[in-house]
Amino acid sequence: MLPSMSSPDEVTADRPGWFRRHLAWFIGGAVVLVLLAVGAAVVLPRFLTTQTKADLYDGRLVDADYWTADPRILSAGLGFEGTIGTAVEDEANTLDAGGAWDTSLVCAEEPTDAQRSNIVTSGTLDMTVLAIPGAKLEKVDGLPVVFSWPVRTNTIDPTQFRFTLNTGEQVGVDSVTMTPNFELNERNTVVMFSDLGNRGSADDPDARFPVRLDIVPASDGRELMLAGPQGDVPATGLSWTGTQTPYDVGPTLVGAKLNRVGDSASGEGGVPSLTGGTLPNDEIALYGAEGRYRLRMLTSGGFSPDSIRGVLPTDFETFFRLHATGADGSDVVLDRVGQEYAVAGGSLRIVGLAELGKPQGDGVAYDDCYTEDRDNYIDIIIAGPEAAARSITGLEIPSLEGGYAAFYNPGGPGGTPTPGIRYTAPGPPSLTPVVIALDDPMRVSRD
């Protein structure tokens, strides 16, 4: 059963324009049939909302990744401030909310307002968000909570999340959503929409931001449950602490795991009304049988080049490097797509990125308007023998300091930042160890 509560909604916390465009796509294909069947236009949004929430919060998991032996909160810092729940997504409303408005997009077709803006309008918040009664989601903040084990979504309630701010104040949240991490093989991240901070730096005397999260029983006593290899466990008692704000340091990696590519992409999708614009985006849909291994990364927030544009399947060389052990024990850096690298056990080749959006062609272009899911996962697809794959040691994001591009969360500046508006900071350089999950895939399924 769904949690009992009212439910204003969210779009993707990581890609505001994404959900609006997907909803329009779905409605365009379904409206005539629904109206003929039921004879009333009002039935359509009600049907979509009911069915979408039934799919999102059904508790199912299919080959969903877990990242550590024991359940943990991997990250829970403030994402961005004030851009969720605005009137419309035009330039005036975008700038009034402190959002980014991009006039520099180069696309196959003229960009829409939704593609130029990183705000989320109030009208998009009914289909996927679970909210406490009376919640007013107007220009609120976004905050992703990333668990190391996937969430049983049928147990979620906003009152299970209690934050402590740097001021000492304890606050609850008004609403939560499983978008954009809605696929059945994902669901590690729950996004909060509430008033949780401001745009001050950590050393600003007027700054307000979360420094601690505690998972507690819901107001009706229900516990948030996480799915692990030996069964479900309550998340109650888990906590997270931090000292930074997104206006000082941007999003980063919290996990990296290497698995085999199977004959099919198990666990993709799961919420039909949300899949039209970005799926299929798995390794098989993009590369067929070319890749043998999938290095999946888990991030602390949505990754975007600037908060407006999407990451492209061809962008490996723009953002990433892999490290592996050479035959002589040296560190081998893999930084080019299509190149063979000699490592211990053979040679490896980077094929490209997946878990973003659809492959190009049939109206899909890899340009500034490319629609990708902006969730907390990106996959690197790799070819080579198993012995060589076992030599992979680390996933690096060199970021700006390494001469590469940086990642931003949804509060970033876009390509044409507006003077006087403070945007979230670029993500830092990082080198994350890769878990070799070839003998044990570290995945769980639940009906």
Structure description:
This protein has about 450 residues and is of the alpha+beta class. The chain has one domain. It is built from seven helices and 25 strands. It has helices at about 15-40, 45-55, 90-95, 115, 285, 315-320, 385-390, and strands at about 60-65, 75, 80-85, 120, 130, 140-145, 160-165, 170, 175, 190-195, 210-215, 225-230, 230-235, 240, 255-260, 295-300, 320-325, 330-335, 340-345, 345-355, 375-385, 390-395, 430-435, 435, 445. Strands 2, 3, 4, 5, 6, 9 and 10 form a seven-stranded mixed sheet that branches. It has a six-stranded mixed sheet with strand order 19-20-21-16-15-24. The longest helix has 23 residues, at about 15-40. The radius of gyration is 21 Å and the shape is globular. The model is unreliable at about 1-40 (pLDDT under 50).
Q: Cα-atom Rg, whole angstroms?
A: 21 Å
**Number of helical segments with 4 or more residues:** 7
Mean pLDDT: 91
Assembly annotation: single chain
Overall number of strands: 25
- The general outline is globular
- Which structural class is indicated by helix and strand composition? alpha+beta
Tell me the β content.
25-35%
Helix residue percentage: 10-25%
Largest beta-sheet characterization: 7 strands, mixed
Distance between the first and last residues' Cα: 13 Å
Number of domains: 1
Low-confidence parts = 1-42
Write the layout of secondary structure elements.
Layout (H helix, E strand, L loop, with lengths): L15 H23 L4 H14 L4 E5 L7 E3 L4 E7 L4 H6 L16 H4 L3 E2 L7 E3 L8 E8 L13 E5 L4 E2 L3 E3 L11 E6 L15 E6 L9 E4 L2 E4 L4 E3 L11 E8 L22 H5 L5 E7 L16 H4 L1 E5 L5 E4 L5 E4 L2 E9 L22 E7 L2 H4 L2 E6 L32 E4 L1 E2 L6 E4 L1
Parallel strand pairs: 3-4, 15-24
Antiparallel strand pairs: 1-25, 2-6, 3-6, 5-9, 6-10, 7-8, 7-11, 9-10, 11-14, 12-13, 15-16, 16-21, 17-18, 17-22, 19-20, 20-21, 22-23
